[in-house]
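Justification of computing resources. Each target in the renewal requires a structure prediction run like the one illustrated here; the chain below, 525 residues long, is used simply to show the kind of job we budget for.
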Amino acid sequence: MTVPTRVPNTTGNKVPPTVDKERPPSRTRTQAIGLLVGGIGFVALLVIPTGLSGPQQRLAAILILAVAFWITEALPLAVTSLLAIGLAATLGIADSPDGGNGSDLVFSSFSSSVIFLLIGGFLFAKAINVHGLDARFALRVLTLPGVAKSSYRVIVAFGFIALVISAFVSNSATATMLLPIGLGLIRTLNPIMSPGDTDSSGPRQTRFATALMLMIAYAAAVGGLLTPIGSPANLVGIGYIEKLTGSSIGFLQWTAATAPIVAIMFVILCVVIISMNRPECRALPDLDYLRHERAQLGRLSTGERSTLFAFCLVCAGWLTPSVVSLTFGVDSSIATFVAGHLDDGAVAVIAATLLFVLPGSKPGARVLNWEQAVRIDWGVIVLVGAGIVLGGLLSSTGLADLVGETLSQNLGFPSLFVITLFAVAMAILLSETTSNTAAVAIVVPIVVPIAMAAGINPVIPAVASVFGGSFGFMLPIAQIPNAIVYGSGFVPIKRMLRTGSVFDLVGCILIALGVVLWLPHLGLG
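Resulting structure tokens:
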């Protein structure tokens, strides 16, 4: 992903440009290397004897190309995904022995419920952003009594806001929404943090500014773990787990599995960020800035009320199967009926259509129009689809089992915790150089057969891999929120490296322990 050198400043404040020496190096050379390595690896695996079956060898060639292109971003992630799907269909990897057309099997993966859940989630995120519900929620929390009395509380409050919003809105949208408010606070508070600063070019890089920017980015990523729709990586991981293990994870079950871990993770995040970027001044005077901003919003508009109504309906639809199962039992006839008819993807797209029916804020307008709807990130949807396609082929060709058995025999994993820790560490390392979704798409199909070969339930390390894939806090290129706050000019690259590396390490251990100890109580282990 391209790291911006400056974020559009919607607050009217002067924001210092990023210093040249702190920018990441140009990725042009990396992209060229990725094209070369991926191309050579693809051709080599097609022609060199490997002992694999024909479909396995051709799939391995596609994976080498896709992984090299994803990691180096030699092509846009969505373009690489389309290329991988096209090659899988063209090379006949899914062709049946009786001469059946494998292309239909490859492309049928795009009928997955996960794809439609993602589309519905993106449409709701767009409506929430268009009508300003995200900003209203942010200012409501920040004006709670006592929050603006302490710089520590302001940082923690911003993190809490980012965490909750990103559970339902994309991480990048959450960071983008909170950034202007954060920049306004920095401009307001920096004279207190740096009383001797008279630089007319704008606020300087105080530790408070760095901590606030890092909190926005990191908390958005952590909050994205809370619900299946919080991050595309979650949906990719759930899709892989269902396809490779046969275990279905519902909306409420996923949230119950992640909530305690996310809560502990957020506490640790606050400690790490504040202790490593301690604000220059802790106590703050009374601020009118936030109350003024909130007053400017006025009462809920018609568009906001309509969006809330539709959002409550979709949440009710997502939660109903889990509630019915808990009430009447998983194997009851009513639970089976509800689970079979209230699919998460179907609920999402049906409820999302209400956004085009319910009234908006302007006379005659609707909550969303198609011109706004088409601006959702269709590239991520393609990437998710490619992940499901490749994950299914890894299983159907037997390549995933072969890789898992080989790694298990050579590495000799002795326990569930060690396998889970390995899965998390590998996902975090990959997420530092590639997208979270791609990291999950690479790690989960490898970890599942390793666990199976070791006689261990694969759901636990697979879920841990999804968690690890949402990490990656050391570099601006690791996640879009990282790039957004880095582009503000208030985050020195050394501070991001130092703070992110500590949180990556602590998070790796926390995820492995949390998943191993907690998931079995929910029937997932």
